Task: inverse folding
């Protein structure tokens, strides 16, 4: 398995509180992604990063912000959590370099967030 | 815009029966197609990628550009195949993969 860990793995919080999820990789991969997984919707891209301090929005970015100050860490922040943000959040990484690059993503184990 | 359609939310077959999970895509460029599998509450794992033309755990998938499909097949289902299966599409850019909504495969004994 790719060296990718997410923290926390489980969190319960209340509406209106800030939440930060961390994704840490030891693969030195350039690209990092945050997806959310919801029944009936599959996985939807929230934000992604193509390098340190380089990020862009995905399909469902409203209410979320990200930061990448180091290659190995990609943080997802919910400034003021809402019940609609109850979900399982997956981080993924991709190398993106070399002739063996196939576009494949490697996923973390997920962070289950419940907003009451 | 790129899109992935998995028409079946749920597919239930008996052990030993053939399995086919459908995936259709919409993409204007040269697509990269993948199948991912997710066992109960675990991380997504890559099952197949179209460029490899390999067979993993007895599963195969062929890219049909004319029909814009990438269906996943297995001739004889096993109980351990029960899982969520996601078809994913990429264009090689920085913005990652677009996923279908997934098919929950249940193999009955």
Result:
């Amino acid at each position: 398995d790719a060296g990718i860990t997410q923290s926390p793995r489980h969190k319960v919080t209340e509406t209106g509180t800030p939440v930060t999820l961390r994704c840490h990789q030891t693969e030195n991969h350039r690209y990092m992604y945050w997806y959310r997984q919801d029944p009936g919707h599959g996985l939807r891209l929230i934000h992604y990063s193509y390098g340190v301090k380089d990020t862009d929005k995905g399909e469902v970015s409203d209410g979320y912000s990200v930061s990448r100050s180091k290659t190995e860490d990609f943080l997802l922040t919910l400034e003021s959590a809402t019940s609609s943000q109850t979900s399982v959040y997956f981080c993924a990484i991709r190398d993106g370099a070399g002739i063996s690059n196939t576009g494949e993503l490697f996923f973390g184990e997920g962070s289950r967030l419940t907003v009451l | 815009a790129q899109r992935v359609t998995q028409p079946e939310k749920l597919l239930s077959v008996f052990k030993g029966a053939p399995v086919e999970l459908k995936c259709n895509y919409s993409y204007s460029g040269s697509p990269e197609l993948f199948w991912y599998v997710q066992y109960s509450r675990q991380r997504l794992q890559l099952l197949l990628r179209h460029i490899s033309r390999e067979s993993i755990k007895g599963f195969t998938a062929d890219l049909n550009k004319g029909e814009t499909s990438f269906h996943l097949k297995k001739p004889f289902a096993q109980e351990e195949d029960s899982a969520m299966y996601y078809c994913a599409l990429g264009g090689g850019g920085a913005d990652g993969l677009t996923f279908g909504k997934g098919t929950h495969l249940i193999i009955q004994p």
